[in-house]
Amino acid sequence: MSNFFDGVNSYSDSYSFFDSYMGTGSANGSSSMLSSSIMDLQMIKNGSYKKALKAYYAKNPVKKSEDSKESIKDSGKADSAANLSTMKSASQKLNESVAKLQKTDYSKVESPEDMLEDVKSLVSSYNSTVNAAKNLNSYSILQTTLWMTGNVSKSSGILGKMGISINEDNTLSLDEDKFKNAQMSTIKSAFSSGVSFASRLSQKATSLSNQSANQIAVNTGKKTYTSSGTIKY
User: Fold this and answer.
1) Which of 62, 57, 48 minimizes the C-alpha distance to 78?
2) If the chain, 233 residues long, is cut into consecutive pieces of 10 residues, what is the mean pLDDT of each piece?
């Protein structure tokens, strides 16, 4: 399975890229950070994710670390309201799909077939969310999407037991016959509330919805704030 960003050599490479730009990785000095960033940037440029990072960097070459930080801040300004709204809507639907599965009373579910439509909804909304990210430039949104697909990849074992496979473009496919024959204990473990695959997915979906709304507010100049100083959507 290829990574969300084709051209990045490994999942850890993609984390290295965002860690060095977002300042979330270990600090080894500004020169080493910039060197690592430029190396990762070249890997991104050599990939196929043209609508996002490659197109953005073609117009905004990185010359020094201060410039890269400023580029991150402004990365979402080129995103259209339509594309941001698509991401907001898709991630909200994903969160709703996850929430429905988390609220299911599994003691009353007689067979996996009873849950098929809800799982199909989750797969569809997840795919819409991943595809929506391909039309955006915002670093915060792209980073969260990368983390989301990474979490899903780490859960490929339990997903595979339910007939859910990960495609090369990081969308999901559902084998309905295999899902109908899955163990209910496996389904409950993946989708129930608490520390589960569903919980981690919900966290990322919520972040994507908020980030999209935030970027729309920034781009339209219609920001309003709560009493604590955070943006009100």
Assistant:
1) 57
2) 38 41 42 42 41 49 55 85 96 97 93 96 97 92 93 95 95 97 95 87 96 93 57 51
Selection from 211, 14, 208 nearest residue 98 by Cα? 208
Helix 65-74 vs helix 11-22: angle between axes, to the nearest 10 degrees?
100
Q: Which pTM value belongs to this model? A: 0.70
Mapped onto helix, strand or coil, the DSSP state of residue 60 is coil
Going by C-alpha positions, the residue among 80, 184, 88 that lies closest to residue 136 is 80
Furthest CA-CA distance within the chain = 60
| Dihedral angle, C-alpha 19, 21, 24, 30, nearest 10 ° | 110
Say how many CA atoms lie within 13 Å of 220 toward its Cβ.
15
Structure tokens at 200: 């981690």
For residues 133-147, one letter each, b for 16 or more C-beta atoms within 10 angstroms of the residue's C-beta and e for the rest, the string is beebbbbbbbbbbbb
